[in-house]
Amino acid sequence: MAGHPLNIGIITYHAAYNYGSVLQAYATQTKLADMGHNVTMVDYRSEEGKRYYERLYFRGQGLKSTLADLTMLPVAGKRKLRMKRFEQFIHTNLQLSAKQYRAPEELNELAETFDVAVSGSDQIINKHSNELARVDWEYMDPYLLKWARCRKISYASSPATMTDEELDHIGPALARFDALSARERSACARLERVSGQHVEHVCDPTLLLTADEWVKHVPACRKTVVGDEPYLLFYSLLRPKRAMGVFNQLKELSKRIGMRVAVLTPMAGNAPNCAELINVLEAGPEEFLSLMRHAQAVLTDSYHGTLFSINFHKTFWVYTEGTKEHELGTRRGQVLQELGLTDRIVTDFTQISSDEVKSGIAIDYSAGADVALQSMRGHSIAYLKKSVAYQEN
């Protein structure tokens, strides 16, 4: 009968120590629960995933990775606190399965547990992701829902850097899904080719919730975590090799705009101790939301940094080391094009306007971005609702 609550199991990268991964999992869970369903996050953490995220150093990815790890030794305390905050958020806010699963075959015991299995979002069908790059293909099977004997749908799953030949490898499994979707428009045609099915274009789960819903569901982001002074948030996934040059540019930017820069760079957290910069490496998911919400402006090279900037109506810039034309082909660039915000791309920090930072209202979201975002969100929620609750005649 219509409106009957379903038992839904979600499987995704819910336990990566990555803001986008954890918050997209939370958003998918929240939106499905808001629809009236009983939602469980399948607590699948492969040994490789746990090794990658839970070891502070020497993760065995070559000499460059080891040298990068050595540069992070001075901030070991901040990194440990960050890990602790991620685990607290995961265990407090996600409806985890009673058992934690480590290997693909262990999930077979869940075969008859759910009415619907939801796979996604994130790069769960990308063999080159941190969780899957060093292991056999079978470790992608849980995300391809090979264990589930129920209705199977994907939500906004990304193949990212997979080649066409690699996608052929997972085509037969995707063909057995009841509904498929992808978060990058460019991925839809590629997945349609290998699955023989229509692939719906939907938004990232973090955009399924409005800014007001984020504040409602995660009350901790109502409080500032860096004091009451205005700040620009720099959120980047830059590597240690580039870090010092970027930090020097941020110091100059701080002086020019007349406010401090909160530096959130999980991949290079050893920001210099100086008056211009605030090192917030220890931020967990709740602190990340707080930093985003209360920032005077945001500078980012991150996909989810871009999405949350837009969702919270921030004055923001997307920084690229390449050309603007190249950036338009990335997943960040695709979102900016759809929302009419490509003018926010910069290739140098000197292009950031001091007046725009200080005003905090440089972008008129009502001029088109909000309308486009609401349309994207409405379409995506409709896909999710229809795909999950579909009943055979």
> On the 0-100 scale, what is the average pLDDT?
93
Largest sheet: 6 strands, parallel
Which fold name corresponds to the CATH topology of the largest domain? Rossmann fold
Strand content: 5-15%
Rounded to an integer in angstroms, the radius of gyration calculated over CA atoms is 21 Å
How many discrete domains? 2
Strand order of the largest sheet: 9-8-7-10-11-12
**Alpha-beta classification:** alpha/beta
Q: What proportion of the residues is helical, as a percent range?
A: 25-40%
Query: How many helical elements?
Result: 14
CATH architectural group of the largest domain: 3-Layer(aba) Sandwich
Highest CATH level, the class of the largest domain: Alpha Beta
N-to-C SSE string, H for helix and E for strand: EHEHHHEEHEHEHEHEEHEHEHHEHH
How far from one another are the termini? 11 Å
Report low-confidence residues grouped into runs of 5 or more.
none
Tertiary shape: globular
Q: How many E-type strands?
A: 12
Keywords: Transferase
Organism: Bifidobacterium adolescentis
Domain Polysaccharide pyruvyl transferase: 18-318
GO molecular function: transferase activity
Account of the protein in words:
The protein has two domains: 219 residues, Rossmann fold (3-Layer(aba) Sandwich), CATH 3.40.50; 142 residues, 3-Layer(aba) Sandwich (Rossmann fold), CATH 3.40.50.2000. The chain has 14 helices and twelve strands. The strands form three sheets. A six-stranded parallel β-sheet has the order 9-8-7-10-11-12, with helices on both faces. Strands 2-1-3-4 form a four-stranded parallel β-sheet, with helices on one face. The model has no long low-confidence stretch (mean pLDDT 93). Pfam families: PS_pyruv_trans.
